[in-house]
Amino acid sequence: MLYGMNYQTVLIMNSFILFWGMDSRFLLPKKTTLLLSLYLFAILFLSFFFSYNINILMLLVFLVVRFCVLLHRFQNWGIPLISFLWKTMLIASLWLFTFFLPGSFFNVSFGSSLKEVLLLFCLQLILLIFICLFTDCIVKKYNVITLLTNNKKRHKKEGITISLLYSVIFISHLFIFSTYSLSFFIFSILTLMISALLFIIFFYILTVSQQKMDEYQLLVLNFKKIKAKYEQISDFRHDYNGLLLSINGYLQAEDLEGAKNYVTSLVDYSASVLVPDYYTELDKVPIPPVQSVLASFGEQAIEQEIQFQIVIKNKITELEMELIDFIRCLSILLSNAFEAVSEQDEPIVYMNLEKTTDSILLIIKNADHSTVALNSLLVKGYTSKKTNAGRGLYIITKICDNYTGVDFSIERINQIFTATLSIKL
Fold first, then answer.
1. pTM listed for this prediction
2. Which of 74, 133, 191, 375 has the most CB atoms within 10 Å of its CB?
3. Residue 420 above 90 pLDDT?
4. Mind listing the pLDDT tens digit for each residue in 291-321?
5. 340-378: b or e for each residue (b if 16 or more CB lie within 10 Å)?
6. Gap between the terminal Cα atoms of the chain
């Protein structure tokens, strides 16, 4: 029992250090941090008087309460589960490399005396401080907390499923924790691998979910801009006759100079209110996300002084393709076209969207004076940029591979690059 008591004391101190090194800095308010810290101190004190199993149960209660507090505070399963998996990875790795492996393969034992237990604690303390500092840098550099807190999806089903499946492994690992047995080694490796796998999977789910949410918010914002622009045009048309009639006042007073200045100001005002020709084409695609993307690139074309010519020959109300996939393809193709013509003397990008009897065709053209082989453009990671980090056209080919009725092709004829996306109806 003495060995178990020593081990559990160090384990509880590990939890306390991680709690203050991470939770108190990023996740929990001061009052909650203080209350949970007092509970950990109580467990630490009682560990000298109760058996190992009882203290492990008290530690499990702490973990469950902490999980529930985070779940209630952030109203989603992402933060408590990610935090729990990350800490479990750290604890499993820490004890595997400082306790089991030295004792099993190098005959270095921690636990035969109080001095060795203190040495184990000091070694783990140094590693934990380094880990907390490393975690702090990662969290701040990549805005991890912001990413997680901005994710409004609760991920309840994923969270419950992962929690239940993983709890069995984690609890089993804790209850065989105090031995050098083969079971401890197997469960340590298993816990570490499962923790890492679930951490990566769930963090990926959260990241993709947030990315889609950001894209959706951007599309909504662009759609609101389009709606506001149309409302502005409607108001302007309503007042336009009155503005023209007001010229009569200058003419009746034979104030030609005043009439000239008024007409000039009216032309300038009209230019600020009226929208480019491509806005009228957007009416033919009553799909708000598509309208938003095209309007966004239209604004970009105006800023970069690129002629952006859109032709939509007939009305298209639906696509035989997932909308998010079509948006990704459209955005990549337009982004590539804008990039290709940005340094040309007369930058022009043509976009044609047409519905035929059996398919929907998206055709984007731009001048291209490069001599790069077309096959190279479809290779993963290839780009004409200096960083050689682009994946645009390769991503489109991968998206199209998921559909039986979607084809993508590129060609270069007379220094005109043409990308065609065909969606069968």
1. 0.48
2. 191
3. yes
4. 878 888 888 888 888 988 899 988 888 888 8
5. bbeeeeebebbbbbebeeebbebbbbbbbeeeeeeeebe
6. 73
Contacts of 250 (CB under 8 A, 6+ apart): 256, 258, 259, 262
Residues 6+ apart with CB under 8 A from 323: 287, 289, 290
CB-based contact 190:169 (threshold 8 Å): yes
Residue 273 pLDDT greater than 60, yes or no = no
Kindly compute the dihedral angle of the four CA atoms of residues 293, 298, 299, 305, in this order, to the nearest 10 degrees.
Answer: 150
Task: Identify each DSSP E strand in 300-415 by its residue range.
Answer: 307-312, 348-355, 359-367, 406-413
Query: Residues 6 or more apart from 171 whose CB is under 8 A from it?
Result: 60
What's at 57, amino acid-wise?
L
Centroid of chain to Cα 275 = 33
Roughly what angle, to the nearest 10 degrees, separates helices 114-141 and 2-18?
20
Give tens-digit pLDDT for 361-412: 999 999 988 878 888 787 776 655 544 434 578 889 888 988 888 999 999 9
Helices 2-18 + 52-74 axis angle, to 10: 10
Residue whose pair of structure tokens reads 């302007």 in the numeric block = 236
Query: Token digits for 382?
Result: 């290839």
Average pLDDT score over the chain: 76
